[in-house]
Amino acid sequence: xxxxxxxxxxxxxxxxxxxxxxxxxxxxxxxxxxxxxxxxxxxxxxxxxxxxxxxxxxxxxxxxxxxxxxxxxxxxxxxxxxxxxxxxxxxxxxxxxxxxxxxxxxxxxxxxxxxxxxxxxxxxxxxxxxxxxxxxxxxxxxxxxxxxxxxxxxxxxxxxxxxxxxxxxxxxxxxxxxxxxxxxxxxxxxxxxxxxxxxxxxxxxxxxxxxxxxxxxxxxxxxxxxxxxxxxxxxxxxxxxxxxxxxxxxxxxxxxxxxxxxxxxxxxxxxxxxxxxxxxxxxxxxxxxxxxxxxxxxxxxxxxxxxxxxxxxxxxxxxxxxxxxxxxxxxxxxxxxxxxxxxxxxxxxxxxxxxxxxxxxxxxxxxxxxxxxxxxxxxxxxxxxxxxxxxxxxxxxxxxxxxxxxxxxxxxxxxxxxxxxxxxxxxxxxxxxxxxxxxxxxxxxxxxxxxxxxxxxxxxxxxxxxxxxxxxxx
Length: 474
Hints:
With about 475 residues, this protein is of the alpha/beta class. The protein has 16 helices and 15 strands. The chain has helices at about 15-35, 125-135, 145-155, 180-195, 205-220, 230-240, 250-255, 280-290, 300-305, 310-315, 325-340, 345-365, 385-395, 400-405, 410-415, 460-470; strands spanning about 50-60, 70-75, 80-85, 95-100, 105, 110-115, 135-140, 165, 200, 225, 245, 295, 430-435, 450-455, 455-460. The strands form 3 sheets. Strands 1, 2, 3, 4, 5, 13, 14 and 15 form an 8-stranded mixed sheet that branches. A 4-stranded parallel sheet has the order 9-10-11-12. A 3-stranded parallel sheet has the order 6-7-8.
């Protein structure tokens, strides 16, 4: 676990299995009464098995890029307890059995730049359902709300079937923070409230950022997100931030020394700077990032969706747009159309995409940590679906399917210091059963047969129900 990251998530409960199941049933009923918008996500206690066995399955452990054929994987109480050859691994009596023949078992995916509505919002259920249906088993909430603290704990106790939640507090930015003293006070309040980390947006003064960094270091709470113009990439790395999201600040850091950067960060994550930057600095910045220990969450699907030459009307016709309100899609179309018409030349935008892809490869080659995140829900990024598009873009950018998949599985577990992201004994049972080998084509990861969240099995028919519940006619 990184020295500048910690999480207060409690995964395991106490007591016997029967006691826990009885307690979960009681808590489920109470929760259903308190929070009706999540009623369909509640744990069905009668459906819980003490153990689940995936029999005769091909295992992609993510320890390396190999596939172990004809394995039996046994899950008990939400953890993987056995991985062994099907011929010699007995299946416990009364286990639920899942036929893995010709299928592949891989770790669940993380969405490391997610946005969740408050717990009293009607959109929260849709976001969570779409994450689950698309194989997201961990989500890092990047714009926290007080209600997320209880939601996080309910998920950890298995009262709510949803991806594990790591949550920030409300945004610290140029509008929400007023001076260094206020910055320190907000850090103290968010740490005391129990948030896992602090979310930074732009607009912070240098004194405010420094106050946040010092107070956060004293209290042991990490901070992540955007790089304010007053700070710049080099000082954000030196601080250090836990993650930089959207590759924010890298374009500005590649401006020649003769450019004073007075124009700020050049539009949408530096797109307007693409013709001015010195790309020979990419490898120097990649090495500096690796040395700092700061991770990056690129959200390349967001960037490319906004600035690419693909017409917004074409993006609006993507199949996943059926899972968000038509009014939202219309707003996304207007936003992209306005930006393309007013803000940049398409040649500059295409160059910005290429520079970011080169930067991603350089960061990987330097040994810097890259974590999977798409920023969903956001412009043309539908929860769950967009994480698969992020993976596909990473492969288009030159990563192997294994390298891209690592960013959303084993790398996330290592970063958070949790036993997730691998199919191995002792790891939490966040698992995806897919019909084809995603190491051959990352697109095969969309062919989900079922999802397991900390031992709770969501079979194909339940996935279909989750999707159908939110699909509108196009």
